[in-house]
Amino acid sequence: MTNPSHPLRVLLVGTIPGARPATCDPAIDLAATSPAALTRYERERSDDARNAIAMLPGAAPSLFEVKPLTPRTFAWVMEVGGELRTQRAFLATCHRYTDAEGVEHAAPVEAVGKITLARDEWLDDVFAAYGAAAIREIAQVAIDRAEAPPATLAPFALPRGLMLPR
């Protein structure tokens, strides 16, 4: 895993089952990318694993910067459930992204007590551009990363209680 205090640059690889075309980032060349490369990226979310994913010629992906949750912010996120938890995690951790054209977008942020959050309009803008699945994927990356110990190599690999075969 990357340094736990540094933000991750997240490529959207999640897709709604059965959706045609796939709902992952449209720059990904699914025909030229092995399922193993996508699985590795889903498990690690590392730059190295992301670089192993093939992109369509001339296409660039959108990359979302996901900051680590602090203990105080993690507690605030986890005190609710469902979509509200997802939205809280997103607003607390994703304050910037670079779109497919290379334009960097930054969230208007505000301090709420000791927690820094993007404003609600940021959530609305990203939702309109990328959909709810993107917000869920980014939020889940932030939550999974917070729950894993710092030395974990693939914190996004399996649901709790499961173990990789040896």
Mean of the pLDDT scores? Answer: 88
Which oligomeric form is depicted?
single chain
Shape: globular
Topology pattern, helix = H, strand = E: EHHEHHEEEEHH
Cα Rg:
16 Å
N-to-C terminal Cα separation, in Å? 20 Å
- Going across the biggest sheet, name each strand in turn: 1-2-3-4
Got a strand count? Answer: 6
What structural class do you assign from the helix and strand content? alpha+beta
Strand composition percent: 5-15%
Sheet of most strands: 4 strands, antiparallel
Q: How many domains comprise the coordinates?
A: 1
Helix content: 25-40%
Please give a structural write-up:
- With 166 residues, the chain is of the alpha+beta class.
- It has one domain.
- The two termini are 20 Å apart.
- The C terminus is likely disordered.
Summed up, what is this model?
By secondary structure, this protein is α+β, with helices and mostly antiparallel strands.
How would you summarize the topology of this molecule?
Layout lengths: L7 E4 L23 H10 L2 H5 L11 E4 L4 H8 L3 H12 E5 L5 E3 L2 E4 L2 E4 L1 H11 L1 H16 L19
Antiparallel strand pairs: 1-2, 2-3, 3-4, 5-6
Helix pairs in contact: 3-4, 4-6, 5-6
